[in-house]
Amino acid sequence: MIKHYSYFILLFILLAPQQLIAGEKPAYQLFTTDGQKVTYSDLLGSASGSEVVLFGELHNNPIAHWLQFELSSDLLLKLENKLVMGAEMFEADNQIILDEYFGEIILERHFRAEAKLWNNYNTDYRPLVELAKDNELPFIATNIPRRYAAVVHREGFSGLEELSDMALSYIAPLPVPYNPELPGYKAMLEMGGMPAHGSENFPKAQAIKDATMAHFIIENLPDEGVFIHFHGTYHSNNYEGIVWYLQQYANTPLNILTIATVEQESVYQLEEKHHRLADFILAIPSSMTKTY
User: Fold this and answer.
1) Which of 62, 68, 79, 227 could pair with 84 in a Cys bridge, judged by C-beta atoms 3.0 to 4.6 Å apart?
2) Are 148 and 170 in contact (CB under 8 A)?
3) Residue 72 to residues 13, 84, 86, 91, 227: CA-CA distances in angstroms?
């Protein structure tokens, strides 16, 4: 009987982890750049000690948006409101509309009618905007107006030279530094299937967005505290994009923390292809529902 009893104990020990894994359904898991599991507390501690936090999202992923809100909420408490927020989803020429709304000069319905809000604003970005408004935090519209990005797509950077001084105030200063050898930009030239994507101006249109976002982050860095920025994860993956431009524009080296968002079938370990995307990688099950 003792032998049989020992056998069943051993069998339980061997099978228990598999049963446990089958029974758990985590909504996300955080990893370091080399694939080590970490906790949200680790992320919060590192973020609070940074100057710039670049939170790369998948635009339709609800877990990424939820964690953006939670991290921002905890940072403003931890930093005693020494926090600036900004986002790709707002173009620089809408800054006056954001400021008027935050200053209660205009009503929300007028803000919503005149700002170029994304279709998923209600579910995904309004909580961030209202968090900043309620706590009197600056919220910076960092992206280039899309009409000027379209100029670059058609004509390259030289097309921007025809713009007025007012138009140029919404864009990173000219001439814009550009490195076509950055892997992310090179990959855009190698994309097939769509003729426009084969144009040498396609990565330049991406670069002017990255440069403009970096420019407005630098322009609005708090003397103390953290600037947290929200954007598509490809804008900062592999420490390129916004990261590269921040390094070009900063007078002194910046303490930048990057977060990449990925989806994979299982979040129990980070897939090799996602290693080294960022300082922290937010892995989310690919079966997660989408916001659009």
Assistant:
1) 227
2) yes
3) 41, 10, 11, 21, 10
Report the relative pairing of strands 37-38 and 280-285 from DSSP bridges: unpaired
The pLDDT value recorded for residue 194 is 43
Encode pLDDT of 162-220 as tens digits. Answer: 999 999 999 999 999 999 999 999 999 887 444 444 588 999 999 999 999 999 999 99
Mean pLDDT value across residues 230-239? 98
Token pair recorded at residue 117: 């809000």
Whether residue 106 is contained in a domain is answered as: yes
Q: How many structural domains are present in the chain?
A: 1
Amino acid at 82: K
**Domain CATH for 65:** 3.40.50.11550
Tell me how far apart the alpha carbons of residues 116 and 121 are, in angstroms, rounded to a whole number. 10
3-state secondary structure of 47: helix
Q: Is residue 290 part of a domain?
A: no
Residue 83 pLDDT more than 90?
yes
Nearest CA to 4 among 12, 17, 15, 16? 12
Dihedral in degrees, nearest 10, Cα atoms 199, 146, 83, 221: 70
Residue span of the structural domain in which 86 resides: 27-285
20 or 270: which carries more pLDDT confidence? 270
pLDDT tens-digit readout, 92-110: 999 999 999 999 999 999 9
Residue 292 lies in a domain: no
Report how far residue 38's alpha carbon sits from residue 247's, in angstroms, rounded to the nearest whole number: 27
Query: Average model confidence (pLDDT) for the chain?
Result: 92
The whole-number pLDDT of residue 189 equals 84
User: Which neighbouring-strand residues pair with 141?
Assistant: 87
Best CA proximity match to 242, nearest among 216, 210, 217? 210
Chain-centroid distance of CA 192 in Å reads 26
